[in-house]
Amino acid sequence: METRVTIRRATSADADEIGRLLHDFNTEFSEPTPPAAVLAERAGAFIEDGTLVFLLAGEGPDGLAQMRYLRTMWDNGLSTYLEELYVVPALRGGGIGRALLESAMETARAAGATHMDLNTGETDTAARALYESVGFTNREGKEDGPSMLYYECDL
C-alpha cells in the first residue's frame, strides 16, 4: 500500500542526515564509503555552492535523491544527472522511491532541464522497473539507436 510521501529540497542544515543516508546506501551495496560525517561535510558544502541538489523524503528522512545539472554542448540546454536515488530498505515498496524520482524530474524541469539520465545495476530489477515506469529508456538492444555503455576510470 502506497502512502503519501512528503518530499522537500535539502538545505545545508540537513547535511548530517544526507551523510547518514549516503553512507548507509554505499554500505548496503558493498561500495567503499567515507564515514557519514565526511559525507555530511561534503554534502553541506555542495549544497551551499550549488554543485548538487538533494531531495529528502519523509521525516526520517527515509530516502534521498542526489542530482546535478550540466550544460550541454549540443543545444546549450540543461541536462540533469540523477547520481543517487535511495530509500531505506525497510520502507521500500511503499512509493517513496517513485515520489523521489518524480520530484527530481519536476525539480529538474523547473530549473530548465530538458533531459535527465542515470545509471543503475543490471541486476537491480526493482530500480529498473521504477525508472522505466516513468519513461526512462534503457538503450541496450533498442532498434532506435546504439546500445549505451557506462565506463569509469579512477584518475
- Examine the coordinates and then state which fold CATH places here, giving the name of the CATH topology: Aminopeptidase
Number of domains: 1
- Rg (CA only): 16 Å
What spatial order of strands do you see in the largest sheet? Answer: 1-2-3-4-5
Tally of alpha and pi helices: 4
Mind telling me the CATH class? Alpha Beta
In the CATH hierarchy, what is the superfamily? Gcn5-related N-acetyltransferase (GNAT)
Largest sheet: 5 strands, mixed
End-to-end distance: 45 Å
Class inferred from helices and paired strands? alpha+beta
Instruction: Give the overall form.
Output: globular
Would you kindly provide a brief summary of this structure?
By secondary structure, the chain is α+β, with helices and mostly antiparallel strands. It is 34% helix and 21% strand.
List the keywords.
single chain; 155 residues; alpha+beta; Aminopeptidase; 5-stranded mixed β-sheet; 21% strand; globular
